[in-house]
Hints:
Two copies of one chain form a homodimer. By secondary structure, chain A is α/β, with parallel strands linked by helices. The first copy, chain A, folds into two domains: 5-161 and 281-297, 2-keto-3-deoxy-galactonokinase, substrate binding domain (Nucleotidyltransferase, domain 5, 2-Layer Sandwich), CATH 3.30.420.300; 164-279, 2-keto-3-deoxy-galactonokinase, C-terminal domain (Nucleotidyltransferase, domain 5, 2-Layer Sandwich), CATH 3.30.420.310. In chain A, the strands form three sheets. Chain A has a six-stranded mixed β-sheet, sandwiched between helices. Chain A has a five-stranded mixed β-sheet with strand order 12-11-10-13-14, sandwiched between helices. Chain A has nine helices and 14 strands. Chains A and B meet through strand 9, strand 12, helix 4, helix 6 and helix 7 of A and strand 9, strand 12, helix 4, helix 6 and helix 7 of B.
Amino acid sequence: MSRPLIALDWGTTRARAVLIAADGTVQARRSADRGIQSVPAGGFPAAFAEIAGELRRMAPEAPVLLAGMVGSRNGWVEAPYVACPASPEAIAAAGIAVTLEDGARATILPGLSCDDGAFDVMRGEETLLVGLGLADGIVCLPGTHSKWARVERGVITGFASFMTGEVYGLLAGQSILARLATEPSPAEAEAGARLGIAAAARPGGLLNAAFAARSEVLAGRMSGGMVGPFLSALLVAQEIAGARALFGSLDGLALVADGALARSYGAALAAAGLAPSVTDPQDAFVAGALRLAGALRG
Amino acid sequence: MSRPLIALDWGTTRARAVLIAADGTVQARRSADRGIQSVPAGGFPAAFAEIAGELRRMAPEAPVLLAGMVGSRNGWVEAPYVACPASPEAIAAAGIAVTLEDGARATILPGLSCDDGAFDVMRGEETLLVGLGLADGIVCLPGTHSKWARVERGVITGFASFMTGEVYGLLAGQSILARLATEPSPAEAEAGARLGIAAAARPGGLLNAAFAARSEVLAGRMSGGMVGPFLSALLVAQEIAGARALFGSLDGLALVADGALARSYGAALAAAGLAPSVTDPQDAFVAGALRLAGALRG
C-alpha cells in the first residue's frame, strides 16, 4: 500500500464508510442510515458527500471504492454481475467509474452471479469473500439474505442465498407467532434456541416446525420469551441443513459475522458439529477493499 | 335426522352459518366477516344473533352447533382440546354449552390436540374430518394453517399443521419478493407454478428456493406475473413433501378444498404422483355437523 483508500459498503438501508491508511490500518469510520433506497434519482453524489465527505477531506488523494447495492439497478449506476467462477482481478476489472461532486472519480464494484441450475446473485459479499483471503473452503455470510459461497484455488466458484433474516423478521414480527412473542430472558433465549434447533431436525420441514411455536405455547411448554429465539434457531438450522445439502462437506467452514448473528450461527453450527473460524464482517470488508483496490491499480 | 340443525363454522376472521333441514339438505346459508377477533368480550350472543338470527327464526327448534376458533381461549368459551386418538363420540361429548340471547342453549365443539413429540392443535377441521366419513387414510385440509390428518378405524389418530397460507401471504405480500410480483396471466400462473414445484425439489430448502424468485426475475427468466404462482406452488410442494415425510405413504389421500386452493393443491399433488379424492369444505362441514349432532343426541 502506497496510498490511503476510502471504501464504502453501501447497502439497501445503510452505508458504512471507512478510511484505510497507507499502512492498511483503519483511520476513521462513518456509518449512516443512507441506504440506496433513501437516495432519490440523481442524488448519489450528494449522498456520498454526506456519508463520506469528511473522510475525503481527511485524505483527498485516496481512491474511492463503492461496494454493495449501490451498484444495483436501483443504485448509482448498475455494475453488471460478474459470473462465477470469479477472481478478484475479474471483479476489479468489472468496476464502473462514477464522478463525485468535486469531479473526482470513484469505482463501483460489481456483484457476482452464479448459475448451477438455479440462478443466484450477491452484491457486497464478494468484497468480504475476497477479504477472507480466498483459501479453499465454504464461507457463510449470515444476514437478511444469507450467502454461502464456495472458494476453490483463489476464485469464488459458486454460492447460494437464503432468505433467513427476512423470513425471521416476517414470522417473528408479523405472523400469528408475533402475538405470542415477548422479550426473552437469557435463560429463555438459550432454551428457545435449543428447541428451535431440535425442531429443525423434524421431518415435516420449516412450515410445520414453525407452527410448533404456537402450539407449544398453547400447551404451556414454551414461554413467550422463547418464541423469538426458537424461530431464529429453527431458521438458522434449516439454512445450515440446506447449505450442507447444496455444498456437501462443510469442514473448514468460515463464518463472517459479529454480535448476535455470530452467536446464533455459532450455536447452530456447533449443534451441527461444525466449528467455523469467525471473522468480523468489517475486518473482512477492509481486507477485501484493499485487495480489490490493489487489483484495480495493477 | 328427525330435526333440522343450525351449524356455524366460526373462525378468526369469518363466520359461516348453515341451516340443515331434517332430511339433511342445506336449506339456507349465511356468512359474515364476523370472525371471533371482531367480537368484543361478552359480545358473542349478540354476534351470534347477527350472523344466524335469521336461521334461528326459520327453524326455532333446531339445535345449534358451533365449531372453530369460537371455542378457543379468545372465543366465546374455551372448549378444551380433545387429545388424539379422537372419535366423533369423544368430540361430541366434550362440547361445551353456552346460552344464546333468547335463553336457548348452543353447543361449542372442542378442537383436537395431538402429541407425537411435537404438540399440535386444530379447531374446526375436526368437524370436516368427521364429515368425510373417517375412512382409513390421510386427509389434507389446505388453508392459512393447513392440516394433514391420519384416520384409522374411524378415529383421528394424529395430525400436523403447516403455516403454508400465512407464509405465502407474508412472502408474496410483504417480502422483497412482493415488489416484483404482478397480476399473473393464465400462462404466467401455469409457468410460475411449474417452476415453483421444480424449485421445491432442490436440495437447499425453502429459504434458498424462495430467493430464486428474485434472482430469476433479475435474470429475466421469470416475469413478475410468475412470482406469486411460483411462491404458492413452492410452498404447497414443500408442505406435501413435509407431510409425506411425516405420514409416509399418501396413497388414498383425500383433499378438502375448493376454488383456487383445490386447483393449486391438485396440481402440486399431481406433480407428486398423487390423485386425491376432492371434497368441498362446506359439504364436509355439513356432514360433520350432522354426525356430531347425532352423537350429541345419542
